[in-house]
Protein: Rho guanine nucleotide exchange factor 5-like
Amino acid sequence: MAHVMEDERIWDDRDAVTKALDGDTDRLGLDENSPKTNVEDSEEFGGLYCTSEGFSEALRSVASSPLWNFIGFSLPISSLFSLESSSLKSSDMHYVESEVKRADATEVSPQPEETYVAQFESEYISSSVPLYQEYWMNSLKKDLHRAQHNGLSELVTSMRLPGLKTPPALSPTAVLSPPGLQTKAYALWQELPQVKSLLNSLSAHEIQLQEAMFELIVSEASYQKSLIVALNVFQCSAELKQILSRVQHHVLFSNLKDVCRISEQFLQDMESHLGQHVVMSQVGDIVLNHQQGFQKVYVPYITNMMYQEALITQLLQGNKKFALILKKLEKGPQCQRQTLKSFLILPFQRITRMTLLLENILKRSKGVCSNVRNLTEAIEVVRKIVEECDRSVQQMKRTELLVCLDKLVDFGNVKSIPLITRGRHLIQEGTLKHLIVGGSHKVSIVSRKDVYIHLFNDLLLLSVKSGHRFVVQDHALFPDNVRVEEIKTTILGLAPESFLLCLTKNHSRSSTALILAAHTRLEKETWMKVFSSK
Structure:
């Protein structure tokens, strides 16, 4: 049995963000070959159900789509958090590498860590319950199958109210089996020994409600099983511990052990309620009781995923020992042919799936039971946790963009200003033509040169691009000191894509104006709209 020490010092990504915001940016070095930043939030998320730009919607979409490998394509999680779809963000890895170097200087020899042993053993869920990956994938396949017959609108509905499936007609009382668990012991609430005597006194709708609640328990048990495998096979692997630095090991597994503990406590409370009240009613109350625990573990874990995926990519590409050890561990019987990546994505899948399960319980409770308490509040609580994950990831991504850009910007002779500031984020960037009208009163000569625009929510930078760097020519506070105007392009003999950009107070506290030209009229309209926004 492998043994490694549990790292009690949790590396908090948001602490690093605070340091970066306070000016400690040298830790996140970036060379001149780093990829440029792009328009914020302009990336499109891949996947089966993606229809929204927001990360909260993306979470729901990705939770319902196969992230790693399914039906012929692969979507790495880094595409959710970085502006390069699948490439390794240098700002991500310089952050990790700087922490690694700092930790390696004082690193001590790894000490044994005991494998994770659950403090609670399920009374109702058989050990044959599948890994959560199987449960989740079977649910997805059933959603896809239903969509093929009922159309996309039904699929979108199923994402919110996934429903439960009707089992074979051989069992007249068997209704709404939890997806993916039909063949497992006690997959159905009505199969519990203490329930069978009650079935004749319950309506079909009441049984459906209990099955929807029981799915929350069964799926949590499946989730708990997968988390324990992830901890004992991968995180507690002495071989991995030997080839990874202390910080690399934590970035890879983050606070997964804390996630597992919270899941265990939640499952214990759910099963305790079932033991006391075989006809359940208080699942909403139990979720609310675990609100703080969920928030405490899921937000930092999901925030860390951008670094987690970047580190895995780097290790697989540059560390043969890591790749070989990982392949051997993944072939172990406990993993059931599941990859490390499929285990690391579990908390992301679970917190988003929980909303769907609770919504289904709420749906089943209407007109059947009036004492299913606090369900609506519980659903809202889980949604807010997902929204906080959204905000945390977006803040981390925005800070990474600022750190990346800060290494590429050269203020030269222009008065420099701190680029990394709390609350600042990039709105749009790109190259426009700066039109300079000269010549005599009879003959006008228009010269053109490229100017690169970085428009933040509170600042405008005008630069000349030199290689991979940006030499700032002027800057102004936005939107207070920036405005745009249409110009009479025909009279001036200018292209119709031209417009006037006015800086009422620039870096030298004077006013100036530039005639800029976009490549197309649509691009012109886009820039004018952005410049006019408040």
Notes: Confidence is low (pLDDT under 50) at residues 1-109, 152-185. The radius of gyration is 28 Å. The CA atoms of residues 68 and 74 lie 5 Å apart. The longest helix spans residues 204-235.
